[in-house]
Specification:
Blueprint lengths: L1 E3 L66 E2 L13 E2 L56 E4 L6 E3 L1 H21 L7 H29 L4 E7 L2 E6 L6 H26 L7 H20 L7 H14 L2 H29 L12 H33 L5 H4 L3 E5 L4 H11 L3 E5 L5 E5 L1 H5 L15 E3 L5 E3 L4 H10 L4 E5 L5 E6 H13 L3
Parallel strand pairs: 1-7, 5-6, 8-9, 12-13
Antiparallel strand pairs: 2-3, 4-5, 6-7, 9-10, 10-11, 13-14
Length: 521
């Protein structure tokens, strides 16, 4: 199954000192208090770059001390007042930081045998701080790197070795009844079957990957794990037709593999090692295809159902809701129905009496599969809501007004200028007014008030890199992509002309993100 958007949707699985904590699924968040932005229509003339500037929003004294932050003021240095989305005092530390998001589309969840994916979740915070949009993980990661077909890294998760051992043990027991003459060698044959089966799962995932690349959708990685594989597609399909194709190619390839194994089976003697292996691979690929075609998220069939509803209604959100609730109903059906079908012998085995280890194992397997489907469906709904609210994140509205100061300016003087101007950020500039670095808010809080007259702002600043310059016109997912590319606590926001507009705090983006997620769809 593919995991688009995010993983597949804002999914789940998931850098430096100045980066924000990673987030994988958009889980529950605890927003801090926010005030409504204020505005000011006055437009005083710009002042010298080394002095205080006219703020882009309501003016007033700012307390640069440790205290709960609310929202801030937006604006460019030395320009007219503007309404803002943030209002908190600049003295609050942003907390630990580290990048985080692999963006995700609208299907989510874990994959079942052969795939099924969750969309990569938006950035999440650490310690229950909630989603953090500007984060991403340090590279794909996710286990043992096996190769890069089509330029996409393929990882084997540690859980795969557990399921490989389980398959080896279970299939070895079956070989003991079918081919008793193998003796202990049956476990080598079983191990080969486990590897061949997951090679088939990899082909299933590569089908999703090739289709995604054909549609110019970036694929972060493929991961083989306990219950199959996941193709983490980082953007959502633009049309329902492409969504349908992207979901269908995986089960289609599994059916093709089952057909090829069947044709190969006709050429060998039944009851031999090759015959048993080919029969097992044929059946397992049929199961993978059938399971993934079930019409509920996060399975491929759920994404196909979503595409159909999307096409009919013209609303991807409606498609996600329908497929997610079908997925939840499917989870309940698996939880109750799978053990009953197994006990009754309807799945091809002998009828069994209730009780005993077989009953317990059947119930456990059903519970695990049901949990995977239910969780994936829920993640799909959360990620769909996230994508619906992403356009509300606009760099211009979230930017704090900033005061330019030269490198040797004492911190106390810089803060005085900021308070006089109603600004909440400091930009260190050279003698010509060119920005050099940004004074870190968390560093200001760490300096006691009595030491601030003897501390130069340059000692508290982070040097500007190209990635820390953000266009004031960015919004939504495009803004998050830029922030993820260069994780930091603050960014310099500039106009298209290169003029400084203000400073964007990752903490303000996070608060706006949490606030948007809390609003009903």
């Amino acid at each position: 199954m593919d995991e688009s958007g995010g993983s597949g949707q804002p999914r789940s699985g998931t850098d430096g000192a100045t980066e924000h904590p990673a987030v994988p699924d958009a889980t529950s968040a605890h927003p801090r208090s926010d005030r409504e932005p204020a505005g000011d229509d006055s437009r005083p003339a710009p002042t010298d770059s080394t002095d205080t500037t006219a703020p882009n929003g309501p003016t007033g004294t700012v307390a640069w001390e440790k205290q709960p932050s609310s929202a801030g003021h937006s604006g460019r240095t030395g320009d007219a007042a503007r309404p803002s989305a943030a209002d908190a005092p600049a003295g609050q530390p942003d907390g630990p930081t580290e990048p985080a998001v692999a963006r995700r589309g609208e299907g989510t969840g874990s994959s079942g045998p052969g795939g099924g994916g969750s969309d990569a979740p938006p950035p999440a915070g650490d310690g229950g701080s909630g989603p953090r949009p500007p984060q991403r993980v340090k590279g794909p990661g996710g286990g043992l790197l096996m190769g890069r077909p089509f330029g996409v890294p393929v990882y084997v998760a540690p859980s795969w070795f557990l399921v490989a051992a389980l398959i080896t043990w279970v299939f070895g027991g079956q070989l003991e009844r079918v081919l008793p003459e193998l003796g202990g060698a049956r476990y080598l044959v079983s191990l080969f079957f486990a590897v061949a089966f997951y090679a088939s799962v990899l082909v299933h995932e590569l089908a999703h990957t090739v289709a995604a690349l054909r549609f110019k959708l970036p694929v972060r990685r493929i991961q083989l794990q306990f219950f199959g594989g996941v193709s983490e597609i980082e953007k959502e399909s633009e049309t329902p037709g492409r969504e349908f194709i992207l979901a269908f190619v995986g089960p289609l390839l599994s059916l093709v593999l089952a057909g090829l194994f069947y044709l190969a089976l006709l050429t060998v003697e039944p009851g031999t090692v090759p015959g048993v292996l080919l029969a097992g691979l044929m059946v397992s690929n049929l199961i993978v295809a059938a399971f993934n075609l079930l019409p509920g998220l996060p399975l491929d069939g759920g994404r196909m159902l979503r595409a159909v509803v999307w096409k009919i209604t013209g609303k991807p959100m409606t498609g996600t809701i329908a497929a997610a609730w079908v997925g939840r109903a499917l989870a309940i059906s698996v939880l109750i129905g799978l053990p009953l079908l197994t006990q009754s012998g309807a799945l091809g085995g002998e009828a069994q009496e209730l009780g005993g280890m077989d009953t317990v194992m059947d119930a456990l397997l059903a519970a695990i599969l049901a949990a995977i489907i239910w969780t994936g469906a829920g993640n799909s709904l959360r990620m769909a809501r996230l994508r619906e609210h992403l356009p509300e994140l606009r760099a211009r509205a979230l930017t704090r007004r900033a005061v330019p100061v030269e490198t040797d300016t004492p911190l106390s003087e810089a803060l005085r200028r900021a308070n006089d101007a109603g600004a909440r950020a400091l930009v260190v500039v050279d003698a010509h007014g060119e920005p050099l670095s940004l004074v870190r808010e968390a560093a200001i809080v760490g300096v006691p008030a009595h030491r601030r007259p003897w501390v130069a702002v340059s000692g508290l600043a982070q040097e500007l890199t190209d990635g820390m310059r953000v266009s004031a016109e960015l919004a939504g997912e495009e803004l998050l992509d830029v922030l993820r590319a260069t994780p930091a606590t603050e960014y310099l926001v500039v106009e298209e002309s290169g003029e400084i507009y203000g400073v964007l705090s990752a903490a303000d983006v996070e608060r706006a993100f949490v606030k948007a997620m809390a609003r009903p769809s």
